[in-house]
């Protein structure tokens, strides 16, 4: 479904990714892990075209997307929820959802599905997004992408800095989406969440893939060492 090969990218002359390759199969949940600053967000930005790849290939459903701008990748079915739960703070919750629904041309059914996944948002539809808690904003950020009906959901640390009860709701939502057959590429720092959710994992260190494997291998001592701060 998503396949990246030998990706390189960075900021100006500072290269951050060195020959990163990664695959997400249909319906697969792949977890990208690694310490702070190793290049996880840079990788997602590069996969999505927010940051240009300086070399390497990115294909989505067999199609070369490496030179497409982010909105065209989104239109093909790549749904990206960037780190830090960005939404339009002045708009209502519903307004935020409508903006992306209109862009994607989806309707009420997509909205109902997203709200079923995050029922906590239902009583907040008229509330300004900027007045929500961080966890509620993260749920809204995920819902905004889900209402576009992506075929691959790309999430950058959706549980970062969020109160435990909402972390659990987000984990359950991701598990349900995965169970329903959606492919997911998830950056997650909590090892226990990755162990519960992932089919496969990729660990980055200093911009390189240093370990890949099946979820069961996440219990290994070498994995803990690669993730320890
Ligand atoms: N806009 C930018 N301009 C210049 N350098 C950047 C920029 N964004 C990130 N970097 C650098 O690129 C490297 C990788 O950063 P990146 O944000 O991809 O890491 P990360 O693994 O997502 O970290 P975190 O776990 O903290 O989110 C870091 O050295 C960082 O300082
Ligand atoms: Mg990051």
Strand order of the largest sheet: 6-7-8-3-9-10
Q: Taking all residues together, what is the mean pLDDT?
A: 95
Beta percentage is 25-35%
Number of helices: 8
Number of strands: 10
Cα-based radius of gyration, to the nearest Å? 17 Å
Ranges where pLDDT stays below 50 over 5 or more residues in a row are: none
CATH topology of the domain at 2-84 and 151-227: Rossmann fold
CATH superfamily of the domain at 2-84 and 151-227: P-loop containing nucleotide triphosphate hydrolases
- Principal-axis shape equals globular
Helix content: 25-40%
For the report, how would you describe the main beta sheet? 6 strands, mixed
CATH architecture of the domain at 2-84 and 151-227: 3-Layer(aba) Sandwich
